[in-house]
Amino acid sequence: MSSKILVNLCISLAITNIIFLAGMQPYALKVSAACKAVAALLHYFLLASLMWMAVEACHVCLVSVIVFKTYQSHFILKSSILSWGLPAVIVTITLAINYTNNYIRIEHAQVCWLSEIPFYAAFLAPVGTILIFNVIMFFLVILRLIAMQNNKLLQHETRRLRFLGIFGLFFLFGLSWVFAFFAVGEAAEVFQILFVTFSAFQGTFIFLFYCIYKKDTRDIICSCICKQKKEKASKVLRTYKSSGDGTAEMNT
């Protein structure tokens, strides 16, 4: 379940970065239609990424706080419909209103993005809602883990790794976008640098807290490495035996 959510999140983040790198180029900025297309696609995949972050926060909360076994098969399907569908609805409405003039080229920043009013209504409002939801999920999980500290059935190592995962979850899901909200006025440049820095390290956070700190992932990696070493040793041994047999035949 968590691996499927992580795959969808990584796909949306990867496409977002690709669109930003390929779309914010002079050839796209000069053509009005291309600029609007880049802005709309960037708007969609940013919202989709945030939606998948909210799904992961919800999943962690359900697993940690609530007994979550009965509806697991339908959870990922409903999450996919919501996470990929709701941003499409928002972008479609934004395109339909005002004959797509909501997506413009911002001259001073040389980027294709939303104009001021649609930016607040179609982007900041959903982002703010998702951030509030993630913070609520975060505190629910933290309260649950604190309540479980006296549970002797929960090992100390497992509890420590859960806290590390939740700590990384909070930074991944919310802190970078909190900086985006404060990137206005005289302090805009500082918060923009912080936003870019934290956003750039999202992939690192995902790798650390969803791969390195997960025991089952480490076990899979170790088993693959051990398997490759065994295969290599077996191949060397067969080569040695075959060369030894050839030498013996020549001596005979």
Average pLDDT, all residues: 76
Read across the widest sheet, the strand sequence of neighbours is 1-2
- Termini distance? 63 Å
| Structural class by helix and strand composition | mainly alpha
Write out the CATH superfamily name of the domain at 1-131: Rhodopsin 7-helix transmembrane proteins
- The ordered H/E elements are HHHHEEHHHHH
CATH class of the domain at 1-131: Mainly Alpha
Strand content: under 5%
Instruction: Evaluate the radius of gyration.
Output: 25 Å
Strand tally is 2
Sheet with the most strands, sense and barrel status = 2 strands, antiparallel
Q: Which consecutive residue ranges, at least 5 long each, have pLDDT under 50?
A: none
**What coarse outline follows from CA principal-axis ratios?**
globular
Helix content: over 70%
The CATH topology of the domain at 1-131 comes to Rhopdopsin 7-helix transmembrane proteins
Number of H/I helices: 9
If classified by CATH, what would the architecture of the domain at 1-131 be?
Up-down Bundle
GO molecular function: G protein-coupled receptor activity
Transmembrane segments: 5-24, 44-68, 80-99, 119-143, 163-184, 190-213
InterPro entries: ADGR_G7, GPCR_2-like_7TM, GPCR_2_secretin-like
Domain G-protein coupled receptors family 2 profile: 1-214
